[in-house]
């Protein structure tokens, strides 16, 4: 919500892009949010990021992937759990 993970992802991208023979076609994607727009407005959340959303098809086409997300009480965010749950067909 506050873009700190997005900033971290941008820095990781810079490092990965500096490695020879590394291609990053789907880098910087975001998982769909779970909060409704009206609730986000009440929370004074900034506008949604312009990062494209990742899909399970993007994962199927990748040779490898790296995920980064904040943890709360040693658990990944609910949004990411929902995304992984939707990839059961892979």
TrEMBL record:
SUPFAM superfamilies documented for this protein: Flavoproteins
TM ranges: none
The EC number(s) this enzyme carries: 1.6.5.2
Organism domain of life: Eukaryota
InterPro entries: Flavodoxin/NO_synth (IPR008254), Flavoprotein-like_sf (IPR029039), FMN_Rdtase-like_dom (IPR005025)
Sequence ranges assigned to domain Flavodoxin-like in this UniProt record: 1-90
One GO CC term, this protein: membrane
Signal peptide: none
Family label: Belongs to the WrbA family.
Protein name: NAD(P)H dehydrogenase (quinone)
Annotated organism of origin: Brassica napus
């Amino acid at each position: 919500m506050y873009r700190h993970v997005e900033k971290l992802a941008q820095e990781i991208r810079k490092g990965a892009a500096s490695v020879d023979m590394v291609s990053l076609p789907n880098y910087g994607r975001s998982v769909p949010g779970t909060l409704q727009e009206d609730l986000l407005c009440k929370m004074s959340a900034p506008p949604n990021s312009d990062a494209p959303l990742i899909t399970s098809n993007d994962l199927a086409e990748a040779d490898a992937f790296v995920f980064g997300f904040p943890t709360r009480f040693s658990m990944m965010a609910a949004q990411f759990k929902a995304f992984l749950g939707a990839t059961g067909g892979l």
